[in-house]
Amino acid sequence: MRIILIGPPGAGKGTQAAAIKGKYEVAHISTGDMLRENVSAGTELGLEAKGFMDAGSLVPDELIINMMRGRLSQPDAAGGFMLDGFPRTVTQAEALDELMDEMSLALDAVVLLDVPDETVVGRLSSRRVCSSCGAIYNTKAHPTKAEGICDVCSGGVIQRDDDKEDVIRNRLAVYHSKTAPLVEYYDKTGRLHRVGAAGAGDAVRRYLESLKDVK
Ligand code: AMP
Questions:
Q1: I need a surface site. Which of 34, 46, 145, 149 has the fewest CB within 10 A?
Q2: Which of 21, 88, 123, 128 is the catalytic position?
Q3: How confident is the model at residue 23 (pLDDT cuts 50, 70, 90)?
């Protein structure tokens, strides 16, 4: 399976991808996680990306496309992948189509996780992540058992700098201007599936799992 998850920040793309990657035995590829790893490791890419990320803006297409060109040619992506956070602009989507053509691969589905802006702000401002293993929590809907400690690996659980409210508002504005046009891009080629993702994640998970039967 080769699936793209699109949707505003906080739609649940990372949570859903992590939950179902075992079922599909595909690589879960999150550009946000890859960039954060580069920032932590202090790589050249990380240094270039950090300012954009802190402001809630998009990292330039060229950097992202080069990073993804390398990532999609890794052995673990050969058996399929679930892309979370990429593409985020029409330029990135066109580059991905070209890359897939070069590799003689096709996308199975592009799934839009549809969530209203107010829900996004509420969810992201209460989102917490493990700084060690990346597990995702929510102070209201899914808190850690012990405050600030990851249930999975006992790492420190923190709030991402870009989950502060002013940055969330900028990320949403960027989503509407740069990423929402992808909905039409994929819809006009019949590849788009929409799923309401404002409620608890079970319905979305069932929907994603059902894509296997469609294939
Ligand atoms: P995410 O974890 O997907 O919310 O991504 C966190 C941040 O990384 C975003 O706010 C952007 O600054 C950057 N980012 C992640 N993916 C992309 C992408 N495909 N294109 C440009 N910037 C990205």
A1: 145
A2: 88
A3: confident
